[in-house]
Amino acid sequence: MKLQGEIQIYPTPQATAQAAAEAFARAAQEAVGRRGAFHVALSGGSTPKLMYAALRGLEVPWPQVHIYFSDERTVGPQDPQSNYHTAKVGLLDFVPLLAGQIHRMEGERDPAQAAADYAALLPAQLDLVLLGMGDDGHTASLFPGTAGLSLGGRVIANQVPQQGTWRISFTFSEINAARERWLLVTGAAKAPVLAQLRRGEGEYPVSQVSDPVWYLDEAAAADLPSNLDSAGS
After folding, report:
1. 58-74 pLDDT tens trace
2. What is the mean pLDDT of residues 204-220?
3. Where would I find the Glucosamine/galactosamine-6-phosphate isomerase domain in this sequence (predicted)?
């Protein structure tokens, strides 16, 4: 499948993260104005860390925000590899959120049961799912060649042999049911996959994300056609 959706390109990872943070604040304000709450799923990765730092200085209606996670490693909440832990130390500890507004995946539990329990607590529809993309084209914890690529439902336990572990992850059904999907992708290592997607080559899991907004830096977009607009220029 080809690279689909809206593409925004910024000079640096920091500029990309700042733009995504400002869009997050606007999306939260709009959702609260329309529906009284903002339900957003966060992801792991280096670019979200930069976005978390930027969000701490923006006006966000935090009392009406509910935080979820699109995937999680099978580790406890204090483990540095935990997506929840990354969000906690980078953002959640700095903003006025109550414990009941933060809904973490319990990676320390049996993955299948934790996935089923998480699916049960999700809202009917998420406003926004934030995603990254790995060098192999995976997104959330939906890796190439894994069973999770074709599973339905909302949240699954996905065995990832290339990582030697299980992960808890949203399905593509859940990701694509959200009102919006954003992919935050930075760094030169991501450029080959993006270029192949643009040409309609390769079979990468990320291509199953429907109509996303891509937040790219120039390094990730280096092999894309030069006529694409650079939003941060």
Report:
1. 999 999 999 999 999 99
2. 97
3. 12-210
Tokens representing residue 83 in the block: 């997506």
Contacts of 60 (CB under 8 A, 6+ apart): 24, 25, 28, 29, 95
Top-tier CATH class for 6-217:
alpha beta
**What region does 30 belong to: left with phi over 0, alpha with psi -120 to 50, or beta?**
alpha
* Helices assigned H by DSSP within 140-182: 172-177
**For the chain, what is the largest distance between any 2 Cα atoms, rounded to a whole number of angstroms?**
48
Phi, psi angle pair for 99, to nearest 5°: -55, -35
CA nearest 87: which of 67, 58, 73, 117?
Answer: 67
* Alpha carbon distance 4, 212 (integer Å): 7
